[in-house]
Write a structure and sequence with these properties.
heterodimer; A: 397 residues; eight-stranded mixed sheet; 41% helix; 17% strand; B: 314 residues; Rossmann fold; 2 domains; seven-stranded mixed sheet; 7 strands; 46% helix; elongated
Amino acid sequence: MKLAFVTPRYGEQVMGGAEGAARSLAEHLVADCGHDVEVYTTCALDHLSWADVLEPGTSTLNGVTVHRFRSTKGRDEKFSDLDARIRVAPNSRSMEDSLAWVAANGPVSESLVDALATCDADVVAFYPYLFYMTVHGIDRVRQPAVLHPAAHDEPSLYLPIFQGVFAAADGICFHTEAERSLVEPVLHTAATDQIILGLGTGRACGTGRDGATLLGITGRPYVVSVGRVDEQKGSTMLYEYFVEYKKRHPGPLALALVGPVSRPLPAHPDVVVPGIVSEEDKWDIVSGAEVAISPSAMESFSLVVLEAWVAQRAVMVNAVCGPTVEHVEASGGGLAFEGYLSFEVALERLLGDEQLRSKMGASGAAYVARRYDWPVLIRRYEQFLMSIIAKGRRARR
Amino acid sequence: MSADDLDLDLIRQEIAAEVATRRASGSLDALEERRLQRLFEQYSPHAGGVGALSDALRSVDATIYIDPEVPVASSQPAGAAIKKTLRKANYWYMRWITTQTTKALSNIAGVLHQVGTEIDRMNRRLDLVASDNPPIIELAGSTPWWHESAVGQLDAVSGRIVVAACGEGSLVRELTSRGLDAYGTDPRRELTSEGASGLDLRTEGVIDHLEAVADGMLGGIVLTGVTEAMLPAQRTWLLRALERTARADAVFIVHVIKPEALQGDKLPVALELAGVTPLRPSTWVALLRERGLNVSIVEADHDALIVATHAQRA
């Protein structure tokens, strides 16, 4: 089987997110199943500017053939205004508004979309739904098209343009049941071939070093949150909640916010922000934490929650984030909070009960092994793709 | 604590009770809690106007207050001081504007709350609120004699076939083994175990599912176990959904249990609780004929198989 992924950015420098997920699937299809996989992407790495920083052309990364195309436009300077406008009743915006929003969101690469028309893969997978190359490319491919929406409850999901994008998919690959429940009633995709796949988790690759020492807080207990340090990801809220918690619970407990920093937070003696760390450091830091916290309300899967369970840590998640709550409900691996007081009480409860933490960590680990072990997951994906190829290209806008 | 000792529901209840106690005791200043709640709700999803009205109203409440205190943090060395000076100079103006804006937004939110309360009151009066999806009613220990016939009827359809209340997917399997493009839905999670069977089985009720199907997508619709405990309004909705989601050449299969097979000791608890009387097969035939469909029926002792197609197909 030959599969082509279409994604706005691709590479080892792209951490997590939908594009990171696309790379994981691509590399596992090559390494575990021996399939031929290529990627159509831009020369961008930064998801805010979409500036071309890599060379266009074809290269190979971990067995995957990567075709890079220049963008004619990155993120438009008027995007924020346009985005703010469509937030009001997005489902009643015109098609012109929708297309303008997609173009302003960037990256715009006509040459990438043109190249898709001559792609010779057996199946083309678009990942995620809201970018130019998916909106304009899903109709251009001759082969069956699979859409990995990676959707969350954001205004853009309700723009009329996406009715057609989803209708043009021959198969849809959801991360979680929560994502499917969100998408189905909005985009009427229930009768489309689909699978709830999720993502595989890596094996813990820590080296047994003390996480607190790596963070520069030797001897102190800490809770950890891994992911982009960004207001929209809930980092500011978590910071404020933790500072309030510490006011009411003085002691040595610290908070570590690990990941690329989009928005710097004020310095605080109980909060450490090491930025991007190596995989080994990340696993050692997570393994040494008392509790792992996912404050984001906008996740379509949340690999970091699953990785915390691989490290046998109990987790706390945002109660309005469907996918992470779904993980917690299905695994018994943690608790959800819906405001400061429930954050405080849940954290107190977990910190005060080592057996409970340990049990939750073990339940989470069992859940991950059951559902998201790469060998099992990649075979399910392979089987799904084969079934879509067998049915052929059917969906058209 | 062993693996089975973990009672998550109990832990959640205890946490909720403790939160209520702390809130009632005023251990956290109400204004401070509101500020922290705003942070929580700032990026909570309520994007497109679907979903719970109460959630959307909560987020409206959380964003009503317009703060005249413009943030002054800056990455430039003197930036914060300059911003602070500007803020001080403009504060009287900002405060005047924000106070009026907040007042106007509060009034609008008040109206929205009244509308929300009225909608809630109306919903409570509607039968549909009782259940979005009807409970599944099946004959105990029955063998699906009708499967073979259903498969035969669906053998030539084009388009996808959905089997409602598919259980573990035996009919879906029969259909796919004949090369048909079939999938199933069933709200009973323990039966569908999505992905495990290798079949496309969804954990969803029939109403939720059909609501999310685009127009004219289905070539075949099989209803079994879902019609017996339906409320009249649900039945009306279902019939409209069948028309909307089916292709012009679609085949409808309705498997119904005869009311007399669901009486006395055989009356399922879910059916008794639903408080409805199942329709007789002949009533289903009449209902489908009323909608202009060609209908045939095969009856057995306890149940019946009804096959309906559009007139032009027949």
